[in-house]
């Protein structure tokens, strides 16, 4: 997790030595090097909430790291050795197989099953099932597949994650989904009678959902940072355009009808940045269990507000830019489509709000005990 937050902090902040990034030096150096290579930044003070990165590049980046973080947190020593550095080099790529055609947020009901098996004298598991929305499937060397290994549908316990070679016999890509006028790398994949040895188990047996929990927390705040970056980009570009464009001989920016909506967005972006940084900073200092108990609601707040704000900012940027903003000469329609997805993935706005509500009303979290006595 720390590794991840560091990267997020680097991107989010032009202040490289931000306290969010106070982590293990080695991780930090490695992540800085990887990021700098990909997105050369001028350094602190280049005015870069988004480090001069367009929405498009954020998108690429956003897919790069989550599996490394999961592997750092839950992989065996052997898996870490085998997968992480090769992943950074680009010779290993992983999908994250939790969702299925008929189960999304209700992951405890997944139908993919793994049963005990022996093949050529090796103890292991046979996996059968189907997964949907597998990002990067076309380039994947491994699929992380969540399957029920014990218990009943609806039980949180009894689900285990496995590393399955993406090219194993029995792995079949059925389709890549088109979404909101974008072709994607999000595949629907079937797994038929796939044998994996015990060493393919990723994380705790029967408690694979802990990986998913940690993954979604990290991804929720990562998405929030990404949406904030894209929001700031949309605002900044709109402001510049409004100063340059002179309909009827006057700067567009002189109109309060142009100013005020951008003021509202800019103000919310400022507030959101503080909440994201505070939450990320706290996450760096907590074990996953504490994140879940103490600040899961804050992570959800960051997530749903940032993602919603970004779609509003992209929509506003299109409006300020007029026809050219609606075209692909500008990135706003792409940002809109991409971040619109974030209002659904890593759980929908409604699931985030449900989480915030559960903390607010003390059904879970720190107030649970006190509120049970009301
Ligand atoms: C989480 O909350 C508990 C209860 O308020 C508190 O004792 C603990 O210090 C908090 N954890 C962190 C890391 O802040």
Count of discrete structural domains:
3
Strands of the widest sheet, in order across it, are 1-4-5-8
Which hetero ligands occur in this complex? 2-acetamido-2-deoxy-beta-D-glucopyranose
Query: In CATH terms, what is the architecture of the largest domain?
Result: Up-down Bundle
Please sum up the structure shown.
The protein is α+β, with helices and mostly antiparallel strands. The chain is 50% helix and 17% strand. The chain has three domains: 2-89, no CATH class; 94-202, Butyryl-CoA Dehydrogenase, subunit A, domain 2; 210-367, Butyryl-CoA Dehydrogenase, subunit A, domain 3 (Up-down Bundle).
Structure description:
The structure is a single chain. Strands 1-4-5-8 form a four-stranded mixed β-sheet. The two termini are 36 Å apart. The longest helix is centred in the middle third of the chain and has 36 residues, at 209-244. It has three domains: 2-89, no CATH class; 94-202, Butyryl-CoA Dehydrogenase, subunit A, domain 2, CATH 2.40.110; 210-367, Up-down Bundle (Butyryl-CoA Dehydrogenase, subunit A, domain 3), CATH 1.20.140. The chain is built from twelve helices and eight strands. The protein has 374 residues and is an alpha+beta fold. Mean pLDDT is 84; it is low at 1-63. The structure holds 2-acetamido-2-deoxy-beta-D-glucopyranose. 2-acetamido-2-deoxy-beta-D-glucopyranose is lined by residues 285-286, 290, 294, 366.
What secondary-structure arrangement, pairings included, does this model have?
Layout: H1 2-12, H2 25-38, H3 55-62, H4 66-74, H5 77-89, E1 94-97, E2 113-119, E3 122-134, E4 142-148, E5 159-165, E6 171-179, E7 182-197, E8 201-202, H6 209-244, H7 256-284, H8 288-321, H9 323-326, H10 332-342, H11 349-360, H12 368-372
Parallel strand pairs: 1-4
Antiparallel strand pairs: 2-3, 3-7, 4-5, 5-8, 6-7
Helix pairs in contact: 1-2, 1-6, 3-6, 4-6, 6-7, 6-8, 6-10, 7-8, 8-10, 8-11
């Amino acid at each position: 997790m720390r590794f991840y937050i560091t990267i997020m902090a680097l991107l989010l902040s032009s202040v490289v030595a931000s306290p969010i990034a106070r982590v293990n030096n080695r991780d930090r150096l490695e992540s800085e090097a990887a990021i700098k290579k990909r997105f050369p930044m001028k350094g602190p003070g280049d005015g870069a909430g988004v480090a001069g990165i367009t929405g498009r590049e954020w998108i690429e980046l956003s897919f790069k790291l989550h599996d490394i973080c999961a592997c750092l947190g839950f992989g065996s020593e052997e898996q870490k050795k085998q997968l992480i550095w090769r992943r950074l080099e680009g010779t290993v790529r992983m999908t994250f197989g939790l969702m299925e055609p008929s189960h999304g947020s209700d992951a405890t009901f997944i139908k993919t099953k793994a049963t005990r098996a022996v093949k050529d004298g090796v103890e292991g598991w046979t996996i059968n099932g189907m997964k949907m929305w597998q990002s990067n499937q076309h380039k994947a060397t491994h699929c992380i597949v969540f399957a029920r290994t014990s218990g009943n549908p609806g039980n949180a316990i009894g689900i285990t994650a496995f590393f399955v070679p993406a090219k194993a016999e029995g792995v079949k890509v059925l389709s890549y989904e088109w979404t909101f006028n974008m072709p994607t790398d999000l595949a629907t994949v079937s797994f038929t009678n796939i044998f994996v040895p015990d060493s393919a188990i990723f994380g705790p047996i029967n408690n694979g959902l802990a990986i998913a929990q940690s993954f979604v927390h990290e991804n929720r705040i990562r998405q929030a940072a990404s949406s904030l970056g894209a929001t700031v980009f949309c605002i900044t570009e709109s402001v510049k355009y409004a100063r340059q464009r002179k309909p009827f001989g006057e700067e567009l920016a002189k109109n309060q009808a142009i100013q005020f909506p951008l003021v509202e967005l800019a103000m919310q972006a400022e507030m959101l940045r503080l909440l994201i940084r505070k939450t990320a900073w706290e996450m760096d200092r907590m074990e996953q269990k504490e994140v879940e108990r103490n600040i899961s609601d804050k992570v959800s707040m960051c997530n749903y507000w940032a993602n919603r704000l970004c779609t509003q900012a992209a929509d506003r940027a299109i409006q300020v830019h007029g026809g050219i903003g609606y075209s692909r000469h500008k990135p706003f329609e792409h940002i809109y489509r991409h971040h619109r997805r974030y209002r659904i993935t890593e759980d929908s706005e409604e699931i985030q709000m449900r989480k915030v509500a559960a903390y607010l009303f003390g059904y879970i979290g720190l107030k649970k005990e006190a509120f049970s006595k009301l």
